[in-house]
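Milestone 3.1: sequence recovery, worked example.
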């Protein structure tokens, strides 16, 4: 007499689980690497925006020179933006606060003469937006 099989055996289920784990072990490092590259690209984009805003600010307000802080490059929380040296409207409010997902301002103020802005994994000099070196511990 034959027995009718009504499901999968334990060994078949273990083989399927093992295959899924192998695929996950291959895919997860690639996803993490892609996320790190996206975060770094976002940091590069942000520092280029800050650099462009500083150049525009210094040409608009030559008596002041470069902005003393990132807040001077934003709108100062007012609508419509006044367009003064204290609130010049060159950067959006999210970037001016110094917190944008993976990006944070390090050191407090920019002096326009080579101040560094610290990102999670990469440091850039404040004048040229060029990568200086990997951040400590990164």
């Amino acid at each position: 007499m034959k027995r009718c099989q009504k499901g999968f055996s334990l060994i078949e289920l273990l083989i399927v689980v093992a295959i899924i784990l192998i695929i996950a072990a291959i895919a997860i490092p690639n996803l993490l690497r892609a996320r790190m590259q996206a975060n770094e690209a976002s940091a590069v984009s942000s520092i280029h925006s800050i650099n462009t805003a500083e150049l525009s600010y210094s040409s608009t307000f030559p008596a002041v020179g470069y902005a003393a802080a990132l807040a001077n490059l934003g709108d100062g929380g007012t609508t419509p933006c006044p367009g003064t040296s204290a609130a010049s409207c060159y950067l959006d409010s999210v970037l001016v606060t110094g917190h944008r997902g993976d990006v944070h301002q390090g050191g407090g103020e920019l002096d326009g003469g080579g101040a560094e802005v610290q990102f999670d994994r990469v440091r850039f000099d404040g004048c040229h937006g060029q990568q200086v070196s990997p951040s400590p511990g990164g």
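The chain has one domain: 12-134. Helices lie at 10-60, 93-96.
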